[in-house]
Amino acid sequence: KGMFIYNIKSSKKIKIPRIVRMHSNEMEDVEFAGAGDVIALFGVECSSMDTFTDGALNYAMSSMFVPNPVMSLAVKPKDSLMMNSFSKAIGRFTREDPTLRIFTNEKTGETILSGMGELHLEIYVERMKREYNVDCVVGSPAVNYKECITNKATFNYLHRKQSGGSGQYAKVIGFIEPLDEDEIKKGKTFVFENHVVGTNIPPEFIPSCEKGAKAACDKGILAGYQVTGIRVVVTDGQAHPVDSNDLAFQLAMSYALRQSVKDAKPQILEPVMSVEVTVPGEFQGTVIGGLNKRNGIILASDLSDDGTQAVIKADVPLAEMFGYSTDIRSSTQGKGEFAMEYRNHQAVLKDTQDKLVKQYLTN
After folding, report:
1. Are 325 and 262 in contact (CB under 8 A)?
2. How many CA atoms, within 13 angstroms, populate the side-chain half-sphere of residue 156?
3. What whole-number distance in Å separates Cα of residue 61 and Cα of residue 53?
4. What are phi and psi of 129, to 5 degrees?
5. What is the pLDDT of residues 123-161, one digit of tens each?
6. Which residue range or ranges hold the Translation elongation factor EFG/EF2 domain (predicted)?
7. Is the entire prediction scored with pTM above 0.85?
8. Are residues 158 and 204 in the same domain?
9. Phi and psi for 100 in degrees, rounded to 5?
10. Half-sphere exposure of 26 (CA within 13 A, CB side)
11. Could you give the number of structural domains in the chain?
């Protein structure tokens, strides 16, 4: 207590005003903490995964893997006068929890809260009401689908625009292909590679090509979902001494990518959850049947030696897990419980993809 510590991430020097050891909902003030102690500090501005040292050590602990959100919903305060408290709550929650994200829908202007599931988002909406006295209007939860390509495809695109005076000219040649499994496991979603030999595309326009490719991946051609797991390789191109510029190469790359994705057999991906259900043994069959109806894949079903308790493990699409809390309570007389966590994104069934594409085209 009273010593100075340093936030390696922000390089800020902070004095420790108070140290407490937590016991459930009780706090015990302590003067010092040693190795292995789990304590809480007051008055220290920080975010999850920050590392503090005494200043003599200049390294940070490696960050934990943070998965991308799998579900989103629109949220806003019922009373516009509560917007300041709403913003404070969101700011604090996103600092505490790296799996909670916030962004604004450019089309509608809505504030979108994204997280790891229905319950995860419900908890934060409830905390806003309880801790900040902010009642919120909440939209229906939406699953965060993605799009990917399954084949390699080439592109050879010329962007040329003349409207009097300086125009726009840019040509890009190359190919796209899916990332391999090892790259995806490492968390990579987009890789851009420059294989241009010489100056057919001037070096200053290579970043423009990458920017255009990323912009095209923000909105897939099937249903408008983000394109993931893609490698974009530029091998050649052409520039004009007067009409080539940053915007021209951005647009050329963006249009080239959208065209080539059509030839790469695009596919929609959905988040799949690892689900573990614990129920009395008598309800084992009922739970397995319920998970099968939700397009789940049963991985294991274990019954205790005395037959009193069953644990069922399954992979289930997140879209099929809406309302499962109510379902498991009613089907097990309130004796069942479950936990789930994000596993990965997998290809949706053909019927589901056709439905999502139709909805996108209709809207």
Report:
1. no
2. 0
3. 11
4. -70, -45
5. 999 999 999 999 999 988 889 999 999 999 999 999 998
6. 142-265
7. no
8. yes
9. -100, 125
10. 2
11. 4
236 pLDDT more than 80: yes
Q: Do 171 and 226 belong to one domain?
A: yes
| Amino acid letter, residue 250 | Q
Q: Output the pLDDT for position 3.
A: 84
Query: What residues make up the domain containing 258?
Result: 147-264
Tokens describing residue 43: 């008055």
H or E stretch covering 337: strand 337-347
C-alpha distances out from residue 154 to 59, 222, 261, Å: 44, 19, 9
Q: What is the CATH number of the domain that holds 105?
A: 3.30.70.870
The span from the CA of 12 to the CA of 127, in Å, is: 29
Pick from 271, 267, 325, 266: which is nearest to 142 by CA?
Answer: 271
CB distance 145 to 224 below 8 Å: no
Q: What is the 3-state secondary structure (H, E, C) of 224-246?
A: CCCECCEEEEEEEEECCCCCCCH
CA distance 314 to 320: 12
Element (H, E) at 252: helix 246-263
Distance CA 172, CA 234 (A): 7
Encoding tokens for residue 25? 């909902």
What value does the mean pLDDT of the chain take?
90
Question: What distances in angstroms separate CA 326 from CA 278, 335, 336, one per listed residue?
Answer: 15, 12, 10
Residue 357 covered by a domain: no
Q: How far apart, in whole angstroms, are the C-alpha atoms of residue 287 and residue 273?
A: 16
Which of 143, 160, 177 is at the close of a domain?
Answer: 143
Residues 238 and 299 in one domain: no
Report pLDDT digits (tens) over 179-202.
Answer: 999 998 888 999 999 999 999 999
Q: Identify the CATH number of the domain in which residue 279 sits.
A: 3.30.70.240
Three-class secondary structure of residue 288 per DSSP = helix
